[in-house]
Amino acid sequence: AGAPDADVPVLVYSCQPYAQCGGQGDRLNGIVTAFLLAILTRRVFLIDSESPLPLQMLLVPRLVDWRVRGGLPATALLR
Fold it and tell me: Are 13 and 34 in contact (CB under 8 A)?
């Protein structure tokens, strides 16, 4: 395990409390759109969604851990 690479490009979909993110359908549409944009721009894709409740309560990460934890500098460990 080497040092974190701070130059890893990251795209984060974010929906925080009191933000205007819309309903569940709007949020899923935004997540899929951001995911496709991350693929096209060759970026690591993460989701930071805490509103109206943490998304990991509804969707459990399996093969890929898409959650943002410890702030964006922690994402530099992803490759």
Answer: yes
Stated as kind and residue range, the H or E segment containing 12 is: strand 10-15
More confident residue, 58 or 30: 30
Task: Say which residues have a Cβ less than 8 Å from residue 17's Cβ, sequence separation at least 6.
Answer: 50, 51, 52
The closest of 38, 46, 36 to 78, measured between CA atoms, is 46
**In angstroms, rounded to a whole number, what is the distance separating the alpha carbons of residues 38 and 51?**
22
> Tell me, what's the pLDDT at 33?
95
Distance between CA atoms of 41 and 48, rounded to whole angstroms? 19
